[in-house]
Design a protein that fits this description.
Blueprint lengths: L11 E6 L13 H15 L9 H7 L17 E4 L4 E7 L5 E5 L5 E5 L6 H15 L25 E3 L2 E6 L2 E5 L7 E5 L7 E6 L5 E7 L4 E5 L3
Antiparallel strand pairs: 1-9, 1-10, 2-3, 3-4, 4-5, 6-7, 7-8, 8-9, 10-11, 11-12
Helix pairs in contact: 1-2
């Protein structure tokens, strides 16, 4: 999973989810049809076909920096990752069922469709296994996180509702529903932030009045509403 490091001052607290979140999408397809679409895009990128797009448009589609900011590395409709010499394009979502797609212009790729909106853990494991055991990809390996010591009493100052994100204290743990109403996931305080990351904005009294929700594809500010 690509990493992102953010510097934060004394008036912020950063926490991360040990997992991957995806922005919901509305694409409907079977796994074989989706895979055929990925293969066609790879051929068009190489100039070997033009059933959907010409080579110029296919390469533009997989060029990072066309989204809201360069750091989010969006092409046209897909997220672009990897290195300049071996890039990949990917898209995932959980509008109803969790689905993920990864394709390398060089020819490798994978499509994973699950039968549940919380299938991201299974999908992530399949993609990581394919990366390590089948294709030897340099990407999608587990990320190491550094967890700092933070008194659970501080979690009371962070709990609250921030638009579509709800943060609660459950005993000695800080939990988050992203979005609200979904299964709670544990947040881990970190010294270095990595996606998916929440950075809490603190007022002079040390209580959270907002947060920054940071992933590889979005960076959103949300004020605390209650």
């Amino acid at each position: 999973m690509p990493t992102e490091t953010a510097q934060h001052s004394a008036n912020t607290i950063a926490a991360c989810l040990l997992g991957t979140l995806h922005v919901p999408s509305t694409h409907h397809a079977t796994a074989p049809d989706y895979a055929r679409f990925v293969i066609e895009l790879q051929k068009e990128y190489a100039g070997k076909s033009h059933l959907i797009l010409n080579q110029t448009t296919a390469r533009m589609m997989m060029t990072p920096g066309l989204g809201p900011s360069d750091s989010m590395r969006w092409g046209l409709g897909v997220h672009v990752g990897g290195s300049s010499s071996n890039p990949y394009f990917e898209h995932g979502g959980s509008g109803v069922f969790q689905a993920d797609m990864v394709g390398y212009p060089s020819g490798d790729g994978i499509v994973v469709l699950t039968n549940g909106g919380e299938g991201s853990a299974l999908s992530d494991e399949i993609v990581r296994s394919a990366a390590a055991q089948v294709y030897s990809w340099p990407d999608f390996h587990p990320a190491e996180h550094t967890v700092i010591s933070l008194s659970p009493s501080r979690y009371d100052d962070l709990a609250g509702t921030y638009d579509f994100i709800k943060v609660t204290r459950e005993g000695d743990d800080l939990m988050a529903e992203i979005p609200r109403g979904t299964r709670k996931q544990k947040l881990y305080p970190e010294s270095e932030t990595r996606p998916t990351t929440i950075v809490f904005d603190l007022n002079p009294e040390g209580k959270a009045n907002g947060l920054e929700f940071i992933t590889t594809i979005v960076h959103l500010h949300r004020d605390k509403v209650q």
